[in-house]
Design goal:
The protein is of the alpha+beta class. It contains 43 helices and 28 strands. The strands form four sheets. The chain has an eight-stranded mixed β-sheet with strand order 1-6-7-5-8-4-3-2, sandwiched between helices. Helix 12 (about 370-380) packs across helix 18, helix 20 (about 555-565) packs across helix 21 (about 570-585) and helix 35 packs antiparallel against helix 39. The longest helix has 27 residues, at about 730-755.
Amino acid sequence: TALPYIPPNSRMNSASTSSAHEEERGVEVGLAAAAASKGPSDAGAGWAKTSLCTAGAVCAFCVALFLLLICGWQRLHHEGAATLGEVAKLSLKPKGDQRTYQFAMLPNGLKVVSVRDEKALTAAYSVSVKAGSYDDPDALPGLAHFVEHMVFLGSARFPEPSGYDDFVNANGGNLNAYTASEVTVFYTELRQDAADEGMERFSDFLASPLFDPRYMEKEVHAVDSEHAKNVQDPSRRLYEVLNALADPRSPVSRFRTGDLQTLSKGTESSDMRNELQGWFGKHYCPSRMALATYGSESVAAQLARAARLFGNLSTGSRTCQEARKTWDVPASYSPNRMGKWVTVLGTQPQPQLIQAFPLPDLTKEFKSQPSKYIKYILGYGGEKSLLTLLRDDLGLVSSFDVGVETDSTGALLIVSYSLSRQGLARVDIVLDAFFYYLATLRHAPVDGALYASIANVSRLAWDWSTPTSPADTVQGLAEALTRLPPELLLSGDSLIEEPDAGLVADLIGLLVPENMNALLVDQDAEKSWGDQTKVQTVPHYDIKYKVEDVRSRFAKNCKRWGQWANSSAAGASQAEFLEELRQFSPDAGADASLPEPPKPIRAVPADVQTDLMRATLTFGLAQLGGVDGELFGSNPTALALGSAAARGAIDTALGPIDAQVRQAAVAEARSEVQANQLALTDGGADFAAEGVAGNDTAAWYRQGWVTVSPEMQVKVMLRPRVTKDQWESPPADDVRLALYSSLLQEVIAPQLYDRMIGGASYELSFATEGISFTFKGFPALVPDLVSSVVAHFKKGLSAHPSASRFSRVLSEYTDSLRSYSEMPIQYAINDRNVLLTTNMHSKEESLAALSDLQEASVASSPQDLLLSKPLELMALVMGNVGEDTGRDVVSTIQDGLGLARQGPDVGGGGSGEVLSVTPVVRPGRPVELRRRNPRVGDPNDAVVVSLIVGVMTVESRVHLGILGQMLSQVAYNELRTRHDSHGPWGGQGPHATTSRRESRQQLGYVVNAGEVQVSNVHLVSTVVQGNALPADAMEAAVEQVYLELMPARLANLSEAEFQSYRSSYKSALLKPALTTKDEFDHFWSPVSHQGQCYGLRNEMLNYLEDSVTDKAPLVKAWDELVNPKEGIRQKVVVKYFANATARPSKQEAERLWKAHGVPTSALPLLAREYDEALLLERADSATRASLAKAGGYFPQALHCSLPREDTTVLAGVARGQARASRGARGGSAFLGLDS
């Protein structure tokens, strides 16, 4: 999209499973909005009805049967028509997609698509409903969203409000939902063996939701908290201003999320229940629904389950069975509502310009995809493009994006610019350049060759697209079924099957000033408004804006735009404009040129070779029966680089082990694996170097993927050796390298754009930790791209000096450091990490480092800070590429940088060591950071409460992996939902207990908890953001979770519940790679850690099978964490306050602890920690240094194997055989070897 993505109205991801790399992926803030990010936005989802033919029931069955036999496809019928189990395989799918798809329609009108993935360990299902926020009653904005929330809170057969959340969480799953403009989508992923009960529960929500009045007020508060979060989102605010310009009779103009004002003010709960039931009955029926299922079961079995559980859904009311309403009348943006110039009071430092052009509804144009062509020609980023003129030649913008959104109200083309300070002052030139370029497009015919090449690129990208997760797959399919014909379900959003140049030309013809609304967003907009009486405010968002006419604001420019549109008068005006541009930007001089339409895309592989695409399982130390080899294939082998090639790696690994013992181990492992019908290659030379990475090996290679892709990927890292006193670098060093990265990217990208568009990409990263080169794409394109990127890097910035570019990029970087566009909780988490992690700096430190920065020091930063030092080279090449090509690519980088081939130490000599593990500070006492919320005007408080466990071990990974699942749900139930139920461990499901308590908290929409990794150190963390209570009270509520509710949860944990959690965690460990990224990341981690931890997953499974056979280890681990022998916990707390930050007295704190249910026995612990806590006002490197001086650092050890007395290979094999005999993972050998 042109604007940063706006999540649709969505529900909190209440049962998310914590991830070992949770924080790196940004999951710690567990928002449903993030979980729903694959879904279409409420601001512009495009859904159309599938056009179906009409026939009677008997005739429909006969025709369907005939076509099934003759053509293998059954044509569909008009919505609501009686059908008898129409079934068809979906054969039009990507070449790389190994899954099986089947479409069916149940007799009650429910559309069903089933997906079989033989490797799947989890199941997923999703239901879409053709009803959304456009269907809200005028008097109840947000009702559709509120229904989406309430549906989850109990049904006739499963009345417990948290029962479904608890069930999904206990089975290692996650769930979510979102409400868009014309569709609502629910989806769940969980363990395969729980799919039947999960779908049974879910079908009952759709059949008979309770809409229990006891929970309405509380869930209205949840919706209101979600809206409060949205109010502060800069992107959301821009969309709301655009919507406010629409016709008030159109649903586009309405408020759609809902809040306390619209959903509860003056409405009794009984009346609201009637509204919910009435709206549900009007819109939720099978003929308006679609179901998507996913799993390892056959599509026939999945369809049978769907028919059994959803086939009895009532066909619904007559109103629901009627044709779906569309919203094209009245037009959202009629001519009298266009041609507006709107200045908006912004909340962020960097100004923006938005151009919005309404177009006809394009939802039915999926075969021609005209928006793909328009987005490409407008957003083209190569040389002589609109972007390079505005950014590189004129310095007016920093970025430029184009997007098209469509639904039944029509389409909206949105052009978004991030403006420089010059661009803000001369926005007229930006508009001039845009309309000049449009005139050139309008006067030339649509380029058929370009259109065809875009179609070719789209086909290639679709054929080899990255598979999505089960949850993303089902929600995408369920939504697509509401607007695409089933036979095009997999291709309709991607392929250009029937190019329509006439339609493209017509749409380009609509991109005129009279059909444009433009927004200028500026923090200082008020200064230009003058007459404040004309300032308007967007209801519910408090966004101030002022509207003028474009023609009055840009009278002279409009005349010029008209001349350009008239070809007979264009020539002189164009020449005049070019001369003005050159005078405006002397830095560009004669090089400045007007933008030209892009040429057809040439760098598209005509014949994609797949000979080396498949990985094979070879013998290796880490694969002697281990599951790593089954899930990810064989480990990479040493890739010889020059004279320092690694040799004899097996001897390094096995040490003085007798050759006969080694041979016996290999033979025994081979026979064991062969017995389980695993495909093997001969050991030979591969075994000699398999899976071993030593300090004398620089590069590694693995042919093929376990997943399916014809692409290759290579990553090369150059890391300096440092001594302990060099662990921390000054902020200025990081700032210099960050600016160098931005500047170099701007220089390189336009010159390489055409080479990348056909299927190759690169990424350069410069930091004090080292230089990283990453390349990915089709092997026919990557080597040439590598050579080009390296050549540009060698030239550096000196080949393209530009004082104006440096000034602009410096200004943009400064603005980014002053911006707080994310939620406050994100910054609170970052503050915690700054306190603990070496070489991180605060925004304030980086801003201070910019004050004296010169262009010359930025240009020389790679040489000064990195290339002049001894560097260690680490490289990994994987995928559809031969070993020789892989070696050549790495050597191209090595030689191109002028680095001698001396093995990993390419800079020669030097003391110190490479920091493959980032050092983490060990606080000597509890730490509490108290500061104001950095987002001006944000009413939320936020708190992060992190307990430090210590350096990760195999044992702690397993313990906290399971405990994290439990903590996630306990914290959510207590801190977010506030339902009068059986508490966080209750319910009427299979795991119900007799304990009753009332959950008393409702702190905010943002609540999440689980395990977190910071480098090699384990934490347990809970985060909360909301405006219900101040941060000190939030912390007290979190302590109740840690000190009372989790111990109680563990005490009441039944054997069945324990086994469910344990099985879910095991399934997560056994989850196969889904994408090439999964595979590459799996191997890059041990490569970057100098060969450590190749067998970590095997070790964790071994420990889970051998030692975590009941809940006792979990109870012990949690007790040691929250009741340490030392008397106080290792704790870091970050608190953000919307208002005062004064710390409560000890007596006031004790009253808070008691008020929030902290057990009396824990009060002395909290009192000691209150006394010992080190209070901080800021998080920066200086504060971190003081913490390190007092407490030191955690060891940089990687504990990736279990301690054993007998570590010989044969002993490990024997242990594995014993374990395998107990049935670990069915019939697969499960052998335990040292990593």
